[in-house]
Design a protein that fits this description.
Layout lengths: L2 E7 L14 E2 L2 E2 H9 L8 E6 L5 H9 L4 E4 L4 H11 L2 E8 L7 H13 L4 E4 L10 E4 H10 L3 H5 L3 H5 L6 E4 L15 H13 L11 H10 L1 H4 L9 H10 L1 E9 L6 H10 L7 E9 L2 H5 L8 E6 L3 H14 L2 E7 L10 H12 L3 E5 L11 E4 L14 E4 L8 H9 L8 E5 L8 H8 L9 E6 L5 H10 L6 E5 L2 H10 L2 E4 L3 H8 L3 E6 L8 H9 L3 E5 L5 H15 L3 H9 L8 H10 L3
Parallel strand pairs: 1-4, 1-6, 4-5, 7-9, 10-11, 10-13, 11-12, 13-14, 14-15, 15-16, 17-18, 17-20, 18-19, 20-21, 21-22
Antiparallel strand pairs: 2-3, 6-8, 7-8
């Protein structure tokens, strides 16, 4: 068992371009051009073409036999089984896997890859995603192939030979062959008619390829880069669409990840639940992991419609990652959707390291809710649901969606925005700092609103009774003789009803700020966080546009609040408030999260 062979995966049954490997370019079929290119390789004497054993591929079998190629048959749908049986029957020690739709494969890249494979004594190696589509190759030893053959259980892992290994990287010694230039946008492969047109143009430029003369892949790529009209012909075709199709047929599993701590509140988790509610459950299966230090916080949330919910108890992120990785591998997760940045970790590297560890162990796409104040994380797609005036330089080299357009406003709030009428007099006041209110701002506000100058106002204060039982009872006792002040235990329905009722919202700096201005409420922000953790640019912008006003916590008293109310009433008589609110939330304040999921998974899958 001392042989290394190239095994080429081939078939005639492609749905996008039937019989593609037998398509001809100036008299030579695609498979013949590929074999000519490989004849220059040091592995030229050890090439097997592996095709399905069925009637549809008999034409291909006899064609390859007639040309003198070593063609062997195996299972049609379980391609992993086909490769494993061929490797076993031929006593192969190492297998270089290629696809027959890559006619311009470069033997020098294959040999660089195999050199690294042997030097580092690897189980598996592949070309990186920076290589042009059509130069892909991978190499695996027989022991690892046998291991994944015995362990693979999902249909996608059987259709795509090394997918189990990519899904479970921590069980193998792996690496990749990298390249300094990113040519991932170049296609020299054959999936559709547009690709065939491009391949013909390459042969017209380099006809010596048909004479078995070596033309480097870099020359071919440079030609396409200089001739944009040619390279643009097939530039919109999705890479590895077959793998995405397998995922789709199997069911795409999404894992939502959040941390829910008393100190940082429920904002991140509620926002993530709102994102998950935008997901089409026929198209995706949803899972949820929450790392929390409070059972009460969990019971307050409306968590349903998930295949499985896993709650961990206040784990450090380096321990939490092991739970996540195990969950990904157990439930065949393909996309992670994480909302993990809080005031506690905003300026730390914990989340970056978590995502990096997940990527090193699993074959998964990561979508993360990020913050313009934090350097970009190791995610495939960053969503910054904050108002930003200019593109964030830290995110320029990755997929980024930014702006309040991407905030997951629940359907109830969208209806509220549409139903809001013009207001001229302030009468109803809602107070909600946050569910947990760790700085006890609610108590301070409640004490101030007992002042006689507020007696003509109707005031409803919200606080989570489960999270703040002592504070709740204290406030309840203090306001019991004030008929115009009502204390409410936070619940989603009660809170939404009060949002319809209120004229002014006195709030903290969390998600409720964005939601309040979205539904066109007059907003008074109590600024309790220091500038490192406040979204101070956003607050100042909103204030400059006269959409909100704010009071810093040390200056909070009955006079400052009363004066702010008077200013609000003056503003409401003008058109600035409505006009500026429309500027922030223009007509395009909705987005299709399902499409974003699909695009992220398709991108370099």
């Amino acid at each position: 068992m001392n042989r290394t062979s190239i095994v080429i995966q081939a078939r005639l049954g492609s749905t996008r371009l039937k019989n593609k490997v037998l398509k001809k370019i100036y008299g030579k079929t695609i498979i013949e051009i590929m074999m000519d290119r490989l004849s220059l390789s040091k592995y030229s004497e050890n090439i097997i073409i592996a095709i399905p054993n069925n009637k549809q591929n008999k034409q291909l079998y006899f064609f390859l036999k007639k040309k003198g190629f070593n063609v062997q048959v195996g299972d049609e749908h379980n391609v992993l089984k086909r490769f494993y049986r061929i490797a076993k029957n031929n006593n192969l020690k190492n297998i270089i896997r290629l696809s027959s739709d890559c006619p311009f494969i470069d033997h020098k890249i294959i040999e660089l890859m195999s050199k690294k494979f042997f030097k580092k004594k690897l189980d598996y190696i592949s070309t990186s995603k920076k290589f042009a589509d059509g130069l892909d190759c991978e190499m695996i030893n027989y022991k690892s192939l046998e291991k994944i053959y015995k362990r693979a259980k999902y249909r996608s892992e059987k259709e795509h030979v090394t997918l189990y290994l990519k899904n479970n990287k921590n069980g193998f010694k792996t690496d990749e062959l990298t390249t300094s230039k990113d040519n991932s946008n170049i296609r020299i492969t054959l999936d559709e008619k547009k690709d065939l047109h491009v391949l013909k143009k390459i042969i017209e430029k380099f006809p010596e390829i048909l004479e078995k003369k070596y033309i480097s892949s870099s020359k071919i790529i440079n030609f396409l880069k200089k001739n944009k009209k040619i390279s643009n012909i097939n530039s919109t075709i999705v890479r590895n669409q077959g793998l995405f199709k397998s995922y789709k047929n199997e069911g795409i599993n999404i894992l939502f990840i959040s941390q829910l701590m008393k100190k940082t509140g429920t904002g991140n988790t509620i926002r993530l639940i709102n994102y998950s509610n935008l997901i089409n459950e026929k198209q995706f299966k949803k899972y949820f992991i929450i790392n929390s230090d409070s059972k009460q916080l969990i019971t307050n949330l409306k968590i349903n419609n998930y295949k499985k919910i896993h709650i961990t108890k206040k784990l450090k992120l380096n321990v939490f990652k092991k739970i996540i990785i195990g969950f990904i591998q157990k439930y065949n997760i393909k996309i992670i959707f994480a909302d993990l940045i809080t005031s506690e970790n905003l300026y730390k590297n914990e989340t970056d390291q978590l995502f990096q560890s997940i990527k090193e162990s699993c074959n998964v796409k990561i979508i993360s809710i990020e913050d313009y104040r934090k350097k970009s994380l190791n995610s495939d797609l960053a969503i910054i649901p904050q108002f930003v005036k200019k593109k964030q330089t830290e995110f320029e080299n990755k997929n980024l969606l930014e702006g309040l357009k991407y905030y997951p406003f629940p359907s109830e709030m969208r209806k509220l925005r549409q139903s809001q009428k013009n207001l001229k007099k302030i009468k109803n006041i809602l107070v909600f700092i946050s569910g947990s209110d760790p700085m006890d701002v609610t108590t301070k506000v409640a004490n101030i609103l007992k002042h006689e100058i507020f007696r003509n106002l109707n005031i409803k204060i919200f606080l989570s009774k489960k999270l703040n039982i002592l504070k709740y009872k204290e406030i309840e006792n203090k306001i019991k003789n004030f008929k115009n002040i009502n204390l409410n235990d936070f619940s989603k329905k009660n809170f939404l009803d009060t949002l319809k009722w209120s004229h002014v919202n006195i709030i903290g700096e969390g998600s409720i700020l964005v939601e309040s201005i979205f539904i066109k409420k007059v907003v008074l922000v109590i600024k309790s966080l220091n500038n490192n953790y406040s979204n101070i640019k956003f607050l100042n912008f909103l204030k400059s546009k006269k959409i909100i006003d704010l009071i810093k916590l040390p200056y909070l008293n009955h006079k400052t609040i009363f004066n702010k109310f008077k200013n609000f009433e003056n503003l409401l008589t003008k058109n600035h408030f409505k006009k500026n609110n429309h500027y922030i939330f223009n007509k395009n304040y909705s987005f299709n999260l399902n499409n974003l999921m699909v695009q992220t998974l398709k991108h370099e899958t």
